[in-house]
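Sample pair:
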Amino acid sequence: MAREAGLSPLEATLMSTLVYSGTAQAATVGGFATGAGILAAVVTVLMLNARYLLYGASLRPWLSQTSPAQAYATLWFLGDANWAMSTKAHAGGEHDAAFIFGSGVSMYLPWVAGTALGATAGDWIADPRTLGVDFLLVAFCFAMAIDLFKSRTDVAPAAAAVVVAGLLDRLAPSGWTLVAAGFAGGFTAWLRYDDAKGKAA
């Protein structure tokens, strides 16, 4: 995708090194392909990665046992997958904060190496769809969502996100579809939580 948008292999690899987010990269590269500038790219990355504020907050009780340098180094390597793994491990009794760091590094290094390989050798694959490569991100997100699914209360936010994503992708496809879907799911979850809190009171 990066090469098709005009990025060199070095630029694509640096992007993966500095922006550790598949969704943000996909949206940014899509923007570059349509002529969007740097400012639009920065805003897209900030919007799509706003979820890391919540990720970091959820890990604060665990990371509070580490020094600031250790905590920030750990958060640099934080991604969707190792956040989900770490949250599940913590719920299962894991209390060593090094689990977050180790799982993050073990995913970050192949991520950057994979980007470098794809940017330099991706042209060897005439059509990635024939190998199902284009479905990898979708499969990953689906597997992570299933692992995080806890109860029926998660159905409404997930459904809201799917509906908004489907409608926007059909009517006005862009990188902002992901942002809108995330907001729709989060807003629905907040409404349900606020309603449940009101009934309990």
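The chain has two domains: 9-148, 149-201.
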